[in-house]
């Protein structure tokens, strides 16, 4: 990270970004070319270990790519605020973000699939009291990214 003065080391601040943001941009590599998709997500963050969860249909380009390359890269950002300046070069954008990489895998075990779906629902609704019909679970695919490395950054005053 070039601007180490903006790096966030505090785990509670990292979790705050993950909770506040609504969309994760997931990048995959398809035969040497980038493929980027915006997804709703859920997460588990404990002791500086991050796991992201996504749900999707059982087929599609993401899955085709993941069959040959399970490396993924993500970017989550929030708190955008445009800062105007006197000249064009003095304009700026305030933000907070978490970015990183890891391996993306499909979750086949029903118990783990429900855990991933509950993380997604908790993130977006604040609730964990959902139940999932096993017939519905057969048609939903849950992806899990075990994050190997990430950095968090803020361009907001402390």
UniProtKB/TrEMBL annotation:
InterPro entries: Pyridox_Oxase-rel, Split_barrel_FMN-bd
Domain of life: Bacteria
Pfam families cross-referenced by the UniProt entry: Pyridox_ox_2
Identification of the protein by name: 5-nitroimidazole antibiotic resistance protein
């Amino acid at each position: 990270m070039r601007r180490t003065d903006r790096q966030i080391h505090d785990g509670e601040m990292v979790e705050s970004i993950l909770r506040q943001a609504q969309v994760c941009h997931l990048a995959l590599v398809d035969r040497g070319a980038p493929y980027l998709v915006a997804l709703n997500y859920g997460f588990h963050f404990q002791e500086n270990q991050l796991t992201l969860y996504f749900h999707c249909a059982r087929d599609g380009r993401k899955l085709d790519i993941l069959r040959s390359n399970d490396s993924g890269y993500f970017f989550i950002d929030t708190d955008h605020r445009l800062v105007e300046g006197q000249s064009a070069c003095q304009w700026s954008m305030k933000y907070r973000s978490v970015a990183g990489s890891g391996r993306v895998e499909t979750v086949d075990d029903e118990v783990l699939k429900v855990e991933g779906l509950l993380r997604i629902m908790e993130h977006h609704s604040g609730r964990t009291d959902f139940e999932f019909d096993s017939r519905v679970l057969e048609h939903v695919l849950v992806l899990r990214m075990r994050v190997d490395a990430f950095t968090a950054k803020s361009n907001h005053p402390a």
